[in-house]
User: Which sequence fits this backbone?
């Protein structure tokens, strides 16, 4: 398995380099900083020269890319133009931490809720509860994230306050003064992140549970007299979880990469919001750093998902 | 009448396999029968047809134009303006319906273009294998690794201010899923006996792909294409919501919600109309897609 992991990692390196090159060219072509500088009438000649030198703007894009990736390999991700010429690396780490403040609790909430819902609706297939859960997950999948976020803001920021006069949640912003502050400012974005993923995971989990629940070894477990609870948690769920765990790895990586929508709506200073700001400010080094971070996290968790599959299911062979 | 519709829905005679012909009813007919008896999917079809018809009819009946300025600014819903008005006094009912029309047309266009690209590249990769497959699969991996929204935003920022440009950009990102599905189908069929027979009879590769393998792949392609409409509605409204998609004065569901967000303190109910329409369309499309999948594959087996 170790050899497999090494092979997988080496195979992803060219994809990663190609992907970064692609994004680099795309961002560089989509906005040409020289053209913007040329229209700047207030800039003097010396400042112009300094900026051209600083960012190698007199070089062709592929040459700039080679320079960039050389620096990036040594941990220097460049300098942000939009955030006061600060180094990108510490900004990235700070924002990744903020994103994790949402991603980790959201993931725990998602994992627990999705498993409970899928076990319930598989065990009680075709009952009212199952129909409600299945219908709810269809609704959750069809709900655009930004719309759900706004609904929560309307519900808790406007209506709830009108009716009760209290405000259980902060509607925007990150407040970390106390743990209670953190909970009430992170609450709504966490729910927003969780909704769509819980909906897809519980649908997937229901199908996975149903497949297992009719297997012979479940009938065997029942016929040897195990309690229904033991049959479900000890035998059925253990096997149904194998494909779900893979899904967890992928969803968790998506959460750690930051959500542009959720973080924008709730003014949460994470990676997603940073990416949107960097893109609109045409801050190339910052965009590249975030994109590479997201790509590495995605590839890494894909690998973890593959390896976990083998650990959980000994029938899977790597060669 | 029903025959004509069943043909157009599942690709018609092309779906008839040698084994299916011997049965009393053709495969296409069986699929149609199963689909019609799928109550949720049929309800979704009815709702979607009514909704699309209203996108077309409501603006004709409305006393207001979608870009007409009235003296009533920022109004809550009333009899004169059932959905209220926006900051510069435009009637939101007619804007919501026109916007829904734009959104659904963009989504359908995205779905068609993405399906064409995905089917073509997937078919080439699956049928020929070797270096063709390697190149196309690398491209697919590339698109999957890069955060889609980032690319979408870069492109939309630069070129995506018109509805059709935005549709092309979305299609350029969304073909990947169909591409993988079609590639898998072509790999599983390329060694089949009927392909072997066609090859022995001297058919060219293009003919084998188009006339022999593609008809066997039409079912899953139609399902994916339907579900893609829902994905496109959500993505289009997301990009427009961020203010990077379709621009003033053309309304779409996304930029209507974006505008409504500005009035969230004064008229919070305003976001419900365009948002509700977006959810309703996506819900219907997903139900139809699921119904089609069940009808094509009654044994189930999908996750």
Assistant:
């Amino acid at each position: 398995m170790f050899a497999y992991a090494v092979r997988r990692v080496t195979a992803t390196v060219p994809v990663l380099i190609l992907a970064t090159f692609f994004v680099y060219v795309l961002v560089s072509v989509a906005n040409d900083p020289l053209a913007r500088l040329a229209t700047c009438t207030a800039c003097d000649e010396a400042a112009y020269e300094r900026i051209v030198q600083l960012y190698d703007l007199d070089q062709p894009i592929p040459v700039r890319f080679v320079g960039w990736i050389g620096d990036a390999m040594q941990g220097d991700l460049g300098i942000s133009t939009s955030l006061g010429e600060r180094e990108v690396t510490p900004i990235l780490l700070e924002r990744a931490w903020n994103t994790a403040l949402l991603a980790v609790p959201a993931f725990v909430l998602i994992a627990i809720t999705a498993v409970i819902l899928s076990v319930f609706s598989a065990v009680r297939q075709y009952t009212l509860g199952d129909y409600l859960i299945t219908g709810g997950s269809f609704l959750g999948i069809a709900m655009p994230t930004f719309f759900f976020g706004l609904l929560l803001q309307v519900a808790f920021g406007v209506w709830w306050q009108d009716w009760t006069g209290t405000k259980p949640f902060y509607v925007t912003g990150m407040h970390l003064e106390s743990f209670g502050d953190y909970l009430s400012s992170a609450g709504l974005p966490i729910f927003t992140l969780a909704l769509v993923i819980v909906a897809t995971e519980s649908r997937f989990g229901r199908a996975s549970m149903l497949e297992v629940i009719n297997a012979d070894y479940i009938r065997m477990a029942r016929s040897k007299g195990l309690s229904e609870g033991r049959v479900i948690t000890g035998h059925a769920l253990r096997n149904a979880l194998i494909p779900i765990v893979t899904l967890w790895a992928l969803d968790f990586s998506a959460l750690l990469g930051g959500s542009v929508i959720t973080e924008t709506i709730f003014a949460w200073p994470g990676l997603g919001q940073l990416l949107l700001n960097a893109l609109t400010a045409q801050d190339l080094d910052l965009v590249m750093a975030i994109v590479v971070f997201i790509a590495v996290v995605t590839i890494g968790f894909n690998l973890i998902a593959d390896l976990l599959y083998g650990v959980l299911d000994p029938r899977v062979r790597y060669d | 009448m029903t025959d004509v519709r069943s043909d157009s829905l599942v690709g018609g005679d092309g779906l008839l396999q040698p084994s299916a012909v011997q049965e009393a009813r053709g495969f296409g007919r069986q699929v149609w029968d199963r689909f019609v008896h799928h109550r949720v999917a049929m309800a979704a079809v009815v709702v979607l047809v009514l909704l699309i018809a209203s996108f077309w009819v409501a603006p004709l009946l409305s006393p207001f134009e979608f870009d007409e300025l009235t003296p009533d600014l920022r109004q809550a819903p009333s009899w004169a303006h059932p959905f209220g008005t926006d900051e510069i006094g435009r009637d939101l009912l007619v804007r919501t319906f026109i916007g829904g029309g734009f959104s659904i047309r963009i989504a359908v266009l995205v779905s068609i273009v993405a399906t064409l690209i995905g089917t073509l590249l997937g078919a080439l990769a699956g049928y020929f294998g070797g270096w063709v497959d390697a190149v196309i699969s690398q491209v697919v991996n590339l698109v999957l690794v890069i955060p889609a929204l980032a690319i979408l935003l870069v492109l939309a920022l630069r070129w995506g201010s018109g509805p059709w440009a935005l549709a092309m950009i979305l299609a350029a990102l969304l073909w990947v899923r169909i591409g993988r599905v079609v590639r898998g189908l072509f790999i599983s069929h390329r060694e089949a006996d009927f392909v072997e027979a066609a090859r022995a009879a001297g058919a060219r590769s293009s003919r084998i792909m188009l006339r022999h393998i593609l008809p066997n792949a039409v079912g899953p392609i139609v399902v994916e294409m339907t579900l893609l409409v829902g994905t496109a509605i959500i993505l289009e409204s997301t990009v427009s919501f961020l203010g990077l998609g379709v621009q003033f004065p053309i309304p779409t569901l996304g930029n209507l919600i974006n505008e409504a967000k500005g009035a969230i303190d004064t008229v919070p109910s305003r976001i419900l109309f365009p948002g509700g329409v977006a959810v309703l369309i996506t819900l219907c499309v997903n139900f139809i897609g699921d119904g089609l999948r069940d009808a094509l594959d009654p044994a189930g087996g999908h996750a």
About this structure: Residues 88-123 of chain A form the longest helix (36 residues). The CA atoms of residues 310 and 317 of chain A lie 7 Å apart. Chain A has a mean pLDDT of 87. Chain A has 13 helices and no strands.
